[in-house]
Design brief:
mainly alpha, 2 domains, two-stranded antiparallel sheet, 6 helices, 4 strands
């Protein structure tokens, strides 16, 4: 059943008996029905249970620093380029991979900076403010697949 068929967006209620969410999953035919209608309705919405809040707090600190430095919601004032954030992500990742945990300017985690860059690109994509300047060759996927195949051959003595 498609989501639109299951959920009535006018009344915000399920059209059919609710399905069980991951929290209520059980195995076999002895599964109890979800009794709380709020739980059933909530199970049909975007899940947030698995988000590590520690990471969100660090990303929020990075976003606060960016708001102070560039202005709150500056990323919605003009289109943003994937190249700018791609490069920032790689710089932060290389520094982190080289053993540096914290950006010396912001005093925040390099990983939180990467999260913030990704969040900004997702937001820009969803608000039609993303200037997509990626190369889009498809070559990387092909090379990764070939590399995995070769590595598998090495491991199997081929």
């Amino acid at each position: 059943m498609e989501y639109d068929d299951y959920y009535n967006t006018t009344t915000f209620a399920p059209l059919t008996p609710p399905h069980t969410s991951w929290q209520n999953e059980c195995i076999g035919a002895d599964c109890p029905e979800v009794e709380n209608p709020k739980a059933a309705i909530g199970a049909a919405k975007a899940p947030f249970f698995g988000i590590p809040w520690t990471a969100v707090i660090e990303m929020g600190t990075v976003m606060d620093g960016g708001a102070y430095k560039y202005g709150a919601y500056n990323y919605r004032d003009t289109r943003i380029s994937t190249t700018t954030y791609h490069d920032a992500i790689l710089r932060h990742f290389m520094l982190w991979a080289d053993g540096e945990e914290v950006d010396p300017e912001s005093r925040c985690s390099h990983l939180a900076h990467i999260m913030a860059c990704c969040a900004l690109m997702i937001d820009a994509r969803e608000t039609n403010m993303l200037e997509d300047s990626r190369s889009k060759t498809g070559a990387v996927r092909n090379m990764l697949d070939t590399s995995a195949s070769l590595a598998n051959g090495f491991r199997n003595g081929e």
